[in-house]
Amino acid sequence: MDSTQERTFCKWLNTKLEANGYPPMRSLVQDLSDGVRLIQLMEIMGDTSLGRYNKNPRMRVQKAENVNKALEFIRQRGIKLTNIGPEDIIDGNLKLILGMIWTLVLRFTIADISEEGLSAKEGLLLWCQRKTAPYKEVNVQDFSSSWSDGLALCALIHCHRPDLLDYDKLNKSDRHGNTRLAFQVATEHLGIPQLLEVEDLCDSAHPDERSVMTYIASFFHAFSSMDQAETVSRRVEKFAELMQSVWLSRNDYERRARNLLRALSGVQAEWAASMFTGTYTDAKAHSASFNKYKHSTKRGWVTERQDITTLFGNIQTKLRTYGLREYVSPLGLAPSDIDHAWNDLLHSEAKRSRSINAQIRQIKETLRKEFADLANDFSQRLHAISLELSSVEGPLEEQQEHVRTLQTRLPALSDALSRVSRAENDCISANVEENDYTIFTCQDLEFELELLAQSIAKKISFIDNQIVSRNMTNLTPAQLEQFESTFRYFARDGTNTLSLADFNAALASLGLVYSDEDMDFLYDHLVQEYGAITFQAFINLLVDITEDQTSPDQLRESFRGIASDKPFVTELDMRLAQLPSSAIDYLREVLPFQRNEVGEPEYDYETWLEEVFA
């Protein structure tokens, strides 16, 4: 492809040189190496003088000055050059030279092409597609293989100048002949230089895209003046389309406005003629019908009203945009008329709702009061127990007995809640949707009862744990607090006990790491002795371990081993030591830390151990 590009780009540059009286180039590598031709080309394309330069450079430094002057001019014009310097052009780096010339082609030939809002390559491709669309044998999808049979070139010429060739008489299978004819007609009649050879298009599996774009851009510029007439026609066409769309929108607005107004009037007449029989079933049927209307029919009207208003505004906006006279709707169909009709509907809805509610209010009143009495009474009983729970005090054993007594009153509350639930179901069956006599629902009360039961259970667990803690006289207050907080952290399921995984993690967080076999043995032993890993079992175990195994020095030595003798430990150190994830999470919460220069926490186990064993 480089040979095709080199030849095409050389011809393209020669058209600039020859048009200004300069001799043509034969080789990009040789003729551009001293910078003279490059400066001449920049003066032609930029329509300005670059000042004095070495017109007969002999030394490399003189050539470099010329090339650098040209490259600097290119950059000053806002053209970005990538990875190319004077030495690349002097030394004949063909790949970079071709890249530079392609940048110039884009800037001075393709960049100003615009079609239907698209520019440059996309604009040129769209222009080609629009021009060749009527020719069924042509399908322009790119600037490569789409041009290999010459038909696309012939179609471009025939589209603008049908007098220059007869497209219907072309031999559609004669690729070389069609391409040669297009080149000849373009050169002789349109003044388009032949930048490509027939073989470049017909004998290549993938014709060079940049070369083809450079050549096709010449067709765009040659036919641009012809397209002005087409632009005028398109302007008239667009205005006609605009007026037609406005006409259709106006008709659509008037039709939809009439239909909406007719529907609003019809439903109000239906409500006015409606009669009640005085039964709850009849009143309930009227209520269901009205609710269905609000949730289906009316919502459709709300959407339609908004759409109609938007449509009217769009019509006016479109007319104002083009400086056209504003649209005046027929009498009775203005947006203000729709607003008035809508307000009438809202008043009728309110009246309808009041009449239905009046029919069923008396029936619902009894059910409301019954539910409210039960719910309010339940809430008061619940509140009384909650207050009594919050005021429990005295010796731990007395508190323990008091709270367990409160726990025995919960079954009676559950029975009362069942009665509240039945009363609520009766209200639901009667479509009672509001109740001014209570703020509670059965779900509210059920949640509060469950919360109270959990609070009592937690209070019992807390008191039990405190009794155990009080008896642990061989632990320091700091150790006891540490062990208790550890147990609470991992006993989160509400049973005040630890599972095997939680037990393992709790011990690991205290620096006590066992093998799976030892852990299973220890867990089974405690479960057999205590029935579960309760707080007392946990504390008793730690007392034994503390007395026999866990000293500050031993724990410090353990942490130091995990930290590889560093005065701090990181999360990565703990994971590499294969501590359980839950133990790592706990240690991250309780260990003091500072962040290093990359923001990673460094946990200070020394300070923590001093606080724990103070």
What does this structure look like?
The protein has about 625 residues and is mainly α. It has 24 helices and 4 strands. The strands form 2 sheets. It has a two-stranded antiparallel sheet. The protein has a two-stranded antiparallel sheet with strand order 3-4. A hairpin with a 2-residue loop joins strand 1 and strand 2. Helix 8 packs parallel to helix 9, helix 12 crosses helix 13 and helix 13 runs antiparallel to helix 15. The radius of gyration is 45 Å and the shape is flat. The mean pLDDT is about 85.
Compact description:
By secondary structure, the protein is an all-alpha fold.
Q: How would the blueprint of this fold be written?
A:
Layout: H1 2-19, H2 28-31, H3 36-46, H4 60-76, H5 86-90, H6 94-110, E1 114-115, E2 118-119, H7 120-132, H8 151-160, H9 175-189, H10 198-202, H11 209-273, H12 280-321, H13 335-390, H14 396-407, H15 410-429, H16 442-470, H17 477-490, H18 500-509, H19 516-530, H20 535-548, H21 552-562, H22 571-576, H23 581-590, E3 593-595, E4 601-603, H24 605-612
Antiparallel strand pairs: 1-2, 3-4
Helix pairs in contact: 1-6, 1-11, 3-4, 6-11, 7-11, 8-9, 8-11, 11-12, 11-13, 12-13, 13-15, 13-16, 14-16, 15-16, 17-18, 17-20, 18-23, 21-24
